[in-house]
Amino acid sequence: MSNIYIQEPPTSGKVVLKTSFGDIEIELWSREAPKACRNFVQLCIEGYYDGVLFHRIVKGFIAQGGDPTGTGAGGESIYGHPFKDEIHSRLRFNRRGLVAMANAGKDDNGSQFFFTLGSTPELQSKHTIFGKVAGDTIFNLTKLNETLVDTEDKPVYDQKILKTIVLNNPFPDIVPRVEKKSEKIEKLSKKKEVIGVKNFKLLSFGEEAEEDEEELIDVVKEFSGRPKSTHDVLKDPQLSSEPAVVDNELADDIAIPSSDQISKISIDDVRSKLSSNSKNKKCVPKSVEDEEDSDDYELGKDLKEEKKRKAEEIRKEINQIKSQLSKKKKDKKKDLDIDNTPSIP
């Protein structure tokens, strides 16, 4: 094991990753892999890795992270494009705790990296080794190896980088890309300033709509800042643009009454209105009441006459029945008298 460490070149540069499973100290081989180390250090300085997940953990093999999207398909380098592999003969995938660039093929390095969790000789000459886990923090790496994962090697519980600290910067000339944030702000401000332009070519009546739009813009420019009349907007020859009454003439013709006159006029108007209202109120109910009384009277009169007529008819019928009964009684009496008279021998 000691022979392995003797073969490895000395490091220059150190970064600490504050993670959810403990600190990880990384010593860099900045001379052997300058592009990869510069890329990693600058991304750490810019806080690019803060909050980024370890999205893939293959137990006993690797733990991969560095993708802000957390999918394994994102991330970019500081150069704005993928950079070339840096393969060094003295750096070999023969133990755990090595830090290397993840890629999808040759010379396709971005921001993603991985830790080796064991000996991985099958990765030799395919990935750039640029650092190693130092000191006792290697034991925190074993915690990552024991993390629960699903069938797609994704951790069941999020394991992520909380913060990155550059303890020893081997590239003092690195300038963080502050311009990028300002560029984004400028783009957003430009988007707000851009005024929408209507595309009339997409419409079947595009030419007519363009003409109407131009006329409307001309009218707005011409009459902006003052009220517009119907004549101004419609441009109808039948409508006159001259005012119907001149303000000066109107002021001369109309005599403005004094406050005393106004008060007298208003009082007189109120009195006249009140008197007329009271007269109307008195007259209207009387006529209505008279009509109602006359209607009631006529209706009562008819009912009384009808009752009298029926009573007379009933009386006549009673008298007639009485006379008939008395007549029958008389006839019966006569018959009895005849029967009782003695017969002559």
TrEMBL record:
Region (Disordered): 271-345
Compositional bias of kind Basic and acidic residues: 298-319
One Pfam family linked to the record: Pro_isomerase
A molecular function (GO) term: peptidyl-prolyl cis-trans isomerase activity
Subcellular location, record wording: Nucleus
Keywords recorded for this protein, A-Z: Isomerase, Nucleus
Domain PPIase cyclophilin-type intervals: 22-166
CDD domains in the cross-refs: cyclophilin_CeCYP16-like
Gene Ontology BP terms: protein folding
GO cellular component: catalytic step 2 spliceosome
Top-level taxon: Eukaryota
Subunit text: Part of the activated spliceosome B/catalytic step 1 spliceosome, one of the forms of the spliceosome which has a well-formed active site but still cannot catalyze the branching reaction and is composed at least of 52 proteins, the U2, U5 and U6 snRNAs and the pre-mRNA. Recruited during early steps of activated spliceosome B maturation, it is probably one of the first proteins released from this complex as he matures to the spliceosome C complex. Component of the minor spliceosome, which splices U12-type introns.
Similarity comment: family membership: Belongs to the cyclophilin-type PPIase family.
Protein name: Spliceosome-associated protein CWC27 homolog
UniProt source species: Schizaphis graminum (Green bug aphid)
Lineage, uppermost ranks: Eukaryota, Metazoa, Ecdysozoa, Arthropoda, Hexapoda
Gene that this polypeptide is encoded by: CWC27_1
